[in-house]
Amino acid sequence: MTEMTDNPLMAEATGQTAGKDTGERHHHGVSFGEAFKVWLRVAALSFGGPAGQIAVMHRIVVDEKRWIGEHRFLHALNYCMLLPGPEAQQLAIYIGWLMHRTLGGLVAGLLFVLPGFLSILCLSYIYAAYGSVGIVAGLFFGLKAAVLAVVVQAVIRIGSRALRNNIMLAIAAAAFIAIFFLHVPFPLIVLAAGFAGFLGGRFGLAAFSPGGGHKAGSGPVLSDADSALGEGIPAHARPDLGWSLRISAALLALWLVPVAAIYVSLGPGDVFSQIGLFFSQMAVVTFGGAYAVLAYVAQEAVQHFGWLKPGEMLDGLGMAETTPGPLIMVVQFVGFMGAYRNSGSLDPMFAATLAAILTTWVTFVPCFLWIFLGAPFIEKLRGNAALAGAMSAITAAVVGVILNLAIWFGVHTLFAEVAAVQLGGLRLDIPVLQSAVPAAMALSVAAAIAIFRFKTSVITTLLVCAISGMLWTLAVG
């Protein structure tokens, strides 16, 4: 007999509800304890920005654990791509919520952020105290080179399954051209693809239907019906306006009440007030991920607030790129250095630590709000033909965007310098060939051979490359 629990969140996660019929209990067979371990693993392997993180999550949750099917995974990803904030973390919240209700979403989302938060906090301590990260840079250098192979694997894996026909290929190509060459804002690309897909689905075009088209993905595709969760909508995932209002009010309070309290008690000129307000604003405009707002954040942090010195944003970006977790975690470094240099009567390191926590809090709490508020309605619309067409087209566009991220990541990994070149009305970031980093290229090639040819596990590949990066750094002094 299953023991009942007095903890309401745990009861919700496990499907146990005292005094209620257990007919609403999950039957996917995945215990909360097992899910906790899986989300820890996903978090620990979440290197390489959104492309690498989505790849890792897909490989573990869909291919290996078979929790949810391919269509459901892409449907959830498409919704997350429409939201402000880090889409990979929001996808983890979404899947965690589907599997184990509110507590599952909270745990999946928190664990996704925790390793990156702790890593960047430690590196920020070293950076503030010594101005460099020493041998630690070698470890992350090796990880960064290995993650490039994981990112390429993501493009191939998702692309082979999402680009089922020529229309989807054309949408992906158009999205890539728009964002890579024309620098069209990411939200416009998604909206245009979604509108085209909506019309295609509305008029019943086969190319826009889930599974429609002529091209089969590489390898077997897990259907929703064959997954642990099945193709139906769990009872807790059905729209409930009362629950939506309660969870939204709670999350809004968690997000904004601390910011308001700091502003009222310390005043608008205090660094903590500035950090709370500025990064709360960033949380609602970061459409398209961190890349869309990094330039603005750097400009404000250097020129307006004086939190960073010129060039230091790149140091923080390097930390975020080579540690697990969302790339937007770079804002934690910005907040840390801002309070470190404007600590007032507090110890600089203590003030910086508080600022890092505050920055992370106001950046990621809204992510839970977007998912818990909207996901039940998105799940209900999963079978809608017009919406399915829109989501299919968005998936294709996302492949083009991920390809753009993969190229960006690869260029900045394999070359030490990148130059902006104007070709007519286009601005392209071209790697400076003389700045090629042979060690990074060698590690990336070795990682690719290990993953694609010998099917070596990602964690083994990352570990070997990390050690190799450290040894290389020691050898070159």
From TrEMBL:
One of its GO terms (molecular function) is chromate transmembrane transporter activity. The keyword Cell membrane applies. The keyword Membrane applies. It is a multi-pass membrane protein. GO terms for cellular component: plasma membrane. The chain crosses the membrane at residues 103-127, 133-156, 163-182, 247-266, 278-298, 352-373, 385-411, 431-451, 458-475. Residues 1-26 are annotated as: Disordered. It comes from the Bacteria. Its main location: membrane. It is found in: Cell membrane. InterPro entries: Chr_Tranpt_l_chain (IPR014047), Chromate_transpt (IPR003370). It holds the Pfam family Chromate_transp. Keywords: Cell membrane, Membrane, Transmembrane, Transmembrane helix. NCBIfam families: 2A51 (TIGR00937). Belongs to the chromate ion transporter (CHR) (TC 2.A.51) family. This is Chromate transporter.
